[in-house]
Input
Amino acid sequence: NAGVMQNPRHLVRRRGQEARLRCSPMKGHSHVYWYRQLPEEGLKFMVYLQKENIIDESGMPKERFSAEFPKEGPSILRIQQVVRGDSAAYFCASSPRLAGGYYEQYFGPGTRLTVT
Amino acid sequence: GENVEQHPSTLSVQEGDSAVIKCTYSDSASNYFPWYKQELGKGPQLIIDIRSNVGEKKDQRIAVTLNKTAKHFSLHITETQPEDSAVYFCAADLGYQKVTFGTGTKLQVIP
Output
């Protein structure tokens, strides 16, 4: 059973370009979470999605950032008009269908975004 | 929202000694507390977790304790080995699937 897959692993964008980060959850997992990690810091929650639904996006910046988890295919985190402050590691995690309110989140290897 | 504080930020121990990392949380409604290990260039890996109805949990050399009254929980690693060197994160979850992470502890085990 393959783990959570993220691609690309490294992404370099110039200021003003768009960044698209992809996440394929573990097989059988229907919940996806995106986190951002700045250097020497912990992970900050961004968004929680289920298939075709955004459940909680309270950690997403109001502008330029969007996320989706379509019925088919990977989850996408999209950053438009990137700025230097967007440089960070972006991690995706997935979890199985909730059972009794308990779950575990399994993380992918991350995408390291560098904005030049 | 939930706030999780973690100490120390760095920790060096001799191989074979024990390591203890402590965390406090702010929201008494939090009911799930996972611990993650992150190696350089990799994603966090769950190593142990504890639910709010349990005070202690052990898995081989790793143990976690939870004091709900004081709102703090701790990770204990015994007989440390060089491969335990990594950054460790505590986290707390209110049950809404939005996990709040601590700021991390960089553990160095000196051979």
Q: What stands out?
A: The two ends of chain A are 37 Å apart (CA to CA). Chain A has no helices and eleven strands.
